[in-house]
UniProtKB/TrEMBL annotation:
Protein name (Swiss-Prot/TrEMBL): Laccase
PANTHER family the record matches: LACCASE-4, MULTI-COPPER OXIDASE
Catalytic activities: 4 hydroquinone + O2 = 4 benzosemiquinone + 2 H2O
SUPFAM superfamilies the record matches: Cupredoxins (SSF49503)
Coiled-coil spans in chain: none
Function: Lignin degradation and detoxification of lignin-derived products.
Any GO CC annotation of this UniProt entry: apoplast
Cofactor descriptive note: Binds 4 Cu cations per monomer.
Main location class: secreted
Signal sequence interval, chain numbering: 1-21
GO-annotated biological processes: lignin catabolic process
PROSITE patterns: MULTICOPPER_OXIDASE1 (PS00079), MULTICOPPER_OXIDASE2 (PS00080)
Subcellular locations according to the entry: Secreted, Extracellular space, Apoplast
Amino acid sequence: MVSWVRLLVLVAFLLPSLVECRVRHYKFNVVTRNFTRLCSTKPIVTVNGRFPGPTLYAREGDTVLVKVVNHVQYNVTIHWHGIRQLRTGWADGPAYITQCPIQPGQSYVYNFTITGQRGTLLWHAHILWLRATLHGAIVILPKRGVPYPFPKPHKEVVVILGEWWKSDVEAVINEALGSGLAPNVSDAHTINGHPGPVPGCSSQDGFQLQVDPGKTYMLRLINAALNEELFFKIAGHQLTVVEVDAVYTKPFKTDTVLIAPGQTTNVLLTAGRSSGKYLVAASPFMDTPVVAVDNMTATATLHYSGSLATSATTLTNPPPQNATPVATNFMDSLRSLNSKQYPAKVPQTVDHSLLFSVGLGVNPCSTCPNGSRVVADINNVSFVMPTTALLQAHFFNISGVFTDDFPANPPIAYNYTGTQPANLQTINGTKVYRLRYNDTVQVVLQDTGMIAPENHPIHLHGFNFFAVGRGLGNYNPKKDPAKFNLVDPIERNTIGVPSGGWTAIRFRADNPGVWFMHCHLEVHTTWGLKMAFVVDNGKGTNQSLLPPPSDLPKC
Ligand SMILES: *[C@@H]1O[C@H](CO)[C@@H](O)[C@H](O)[C@H]1NC(C)=O
Ligand SMILES: *[C@@H]1O[C@H](CO)[C@@H](O)[C@H](O)[C@H]1NC(C)=O
Ligand SMILES: *[C@@H]1O[C@H](CO)[C@@H](O)[C@H](O)[C@H]1NC(C)=O
Ligand SMILES: *[C@@H]1O[C@H](CO)[C@@H](O)[C@H](O)[C@H]1NC(C)=O
Ligand SMILES: *[C@@H]1O[C@H](CO)[C@@H](O)[C@H](O)[C@H]1NC(C)=O
Ligand SMILES: *[C@@H]1O[C@H](CO)[C@@H](O)[C@H](O)[C@H]1NC(C)=O
Ligand SMILES: *[C@@H]1O[C@H](CO)[C@@H](O)[C@H](O)[C@H]1NC(C)=O
Ligand SMILES: *[C@@H]1O[C@H](CO)[C@@H](O)[C@H](O)[C@H]1NC(C)=O
Ligand SMILES: *[C@@H]1O[C@H](CO)[C@@H](O)[C@H](O)[C@H]1NC(C)=O
Ligand SMILES: *[C@@H]1O[C@H](CO)[C@@H](O)[C@H](O)[C@H]1NC(C)=O
Ligand SMILES: *[C@@H]1O[C@H](CO)[C@@H](O)[C@H](O)[C@H]1NC(C)=O
Ligand SMILES: *[C@@H]1O[C@H](CO)[C@@H](O)[C@H](O)[C@H]1NC(C)=O
Ligand SMILES: [Cu+2]
């Protein structure tokens, strides 16, 4: 008997080192720091004084605990973009949707387990415009001993694309809300925090990526910009896409990657040259002529080991800003890997068939110089943020915070991408769409021509979805479903709705809670292009939302 007890004690002692899944502890101190870019210095909000912020590393199956301490003057929340948050909506992060903000001087521990996901995601602030500087990478490695479904790269490098304003970003959006017009565009794009050399501003080196000839590297690309979709290119090199939004893809080669805010893309880069320096470029994609964008190309350098710093850099031409064919070609090439090990579980039937028009509108504004303000909406509803978080209202049955009458279809059917209606007004509302646990949902996201058609990268919290179809003009419910890909469509969490077109997505509501869906162009979110799904608890064990943690911030 005694020896059995000893053995058990020994096993219990050894267990932690044998168990695969770990608890990873992180501390995020939100602090203000001065940074110099474009020849001027300004204070920005950072995590741990870093821009971009620290990379969060974990393995599939790990539990992650991040203690966020707010030392700045703003209310703060952090969102773990793309993490499923199964039953842990309290850790999702969007302010007033799943939690009240962490107020100055307060802290909150985000506690979540990474289940069934591996690849690259990002974390970012989900309140105000703080995510301009409050963002970083999430690297989820496969479980120990599980290989990538592609040759193991020699090295892995996180590459974060962003935007930099000379002004304070909160001043930029507040000025726009006062005028009712579009906010100023950024002053530069950045690659790992640096714009690269800028005319009229000396001593601004860009990011350098050192490579050894013949070796293969995996770049974990992240678009952390607020308002701009970006093209990414490296002179003289092709890239092999192997994963997007932490889902493996069928590998394909391309010379240009399209990446929208909130999206991530892992590419393999083979250093197939013998020496030299090659330009890395990130430039905007915008195919709506009337919408202003920051037209500065951010640059970095791919530097072969042994090449002199003074050797000439091989240049590349970024695609034109309005290169719709380049964007379409990239989107068309994306397919889920759909292997035996990583199947694409596309819902084959749908319980809820929804048509959501997404676009802009114009509402009266007595304090605005023009007497009107630009707004944005889904199905004519400009979402108004509540003052109590929706998830709390849902869990504690607090009435009067939201209504669950979000329309399944546009209230008025019209030619969405044709001549705009005379009346561009929207209605205000804090409306949600209710789903039962395990319901299947199809949402056709239909762009509108209100003011102008525009590409909207739509992000869904709490789920991955399958992008089963896409087209130009108005969605035709009789003809278009026949063309859907229900076998190996790309699975992701953020998808661009083509300018003047539509995208159909499907997902299974297997995660109880309240889940935000919104445009990931921050300006459109601010203007109201957002809504939420409420997913009720299921009847089985493990099918209900867990209770909130005791340190959940209060409003
Ligand atoms: C940032 O720089 C400004 C002016 O150079 C200075 O007044 C301020 O104290 C600095 N702030 C921080 C947080 O270092
Ligand atoms: C994290 O959440 C789990 C439940 O999902 C709970 O068991 C655990 O105690 C929590 N950890 C901390 C440090 O709060
Ligand atoms: C926005 O741009 C205008 C025109 O360049 C400038 O006058 C204004 O100060 C800018 N606003 C902010 C907040 O930087
Ligand atoms: C970028 O935009 C600015 C302002 O709209 C314009 O003056 C400039 O010529 C543009 N530059 C390029 C390279 O297109
Ligand atoms: C607002 O007014 C300005 C100047 O009066 C004008 O140029 C602009 O087109 C107006 N914008 C809208 C959206 O009405
Ligand atoms: C709609 O909500 C916005 C704030 O989100 C407010 O400024 C505006 O006055 C509201 N409009 C109406 C008609 O209630
Ligand atoms: C909220 O209402 C539901 C359904 O009526 C009930 O099951 C649940 O216990 C209530 N929750 C709280 C916290 O009162
Ligand atoms: C919608 O408008 C477009 C552009 O004006 C036009 O080509 C199309 O025929 C219209 N569709 C319908 C159904 O009226
Ligand atoms: C949106 O709602 C407003 C206010 O009720 C209405 O005037 C307008 O016609 C609606 N527009 C559409 C396209 O549904
Ligand atoms: C969800 O529904 C599918 C059928 O659509 C069923 O096969 C599956 O078992 C259900 N899952 C749960 C957890 O109820
Ligand atoms: C519920 O979850 C626990 C822990 O995650 C797991 O051990 C258990 O098997 C699950 N039960 C069911 C019925 O899925
Ligand atoms: C911060 O959040 C709290 C809780 O919602 C709110 O009462 C307060 O007004 C917010 N502070 C600012 C500066 O917005
Ligand atoms: Cu948008």
